[in-house]
Amino acid sequence: MTNSANKEQLIACQQCDALYEKPELKQGQSAKCTRCGSTIEERKVNSIERSFHWSLAGIMLLVPAILLPIMGVTLAGQYHHASLLDCIVVLIDRGFFMIATLVFLFAIAVPVVRLFGAFYITYSFKFNKLKPSLLYFFRAFHHLDNWAMLNVFMLGIVVSMYKLLDDTELSVNMGLLAFILWLISSTMASSALDQDYIWQKLEDEFVD
Asked: According to the 3-state scheme, what is the secondary structure of 96-133?
């Protein structure tokens, strides 16, 4: 029993696997590996508060980012514009079902779930509404970090605009601004979240 308790007090460096006793850190402090110099643990300042407000901002930007036109194209005297949702509909109409599904999943569905997940987690901590189910929810939420690809979609937009500049007249619409702000809010909500603190708090509260 003592051996198991001692193991729970150890933390490993993710870079070189060196083991250390779990440090007691205050907000703004970090612990670095003496072997390789990488950060092994960090306490972010006002993590819950900042992630809560960033995720709330992202949720507010959700509808305009998806439904407003991102950019307009004038070709042969005709003007066309498309939103993020329009892009998916066009892909479906042209038979690119797999690509449409991937765009929907990684550019809309996963980022939306991550934003609402971050909002739910930080809301629960901010207003002290912790439940045992939150521990399982956070475990599932943790695995979504590698599946949100708003930045990849944004890169695709930039490349498309660059290729169209010589042949067409482009106009940037409000949807692009909303999408960029949504991307920033989603990224900041995730980066501001102190996952080590949340793990420790939930385990202390609900794990025997």
From this structure: CHHHHHHHHHHHHHHHHHHHHHHHHHHHHHHCCCCCHH
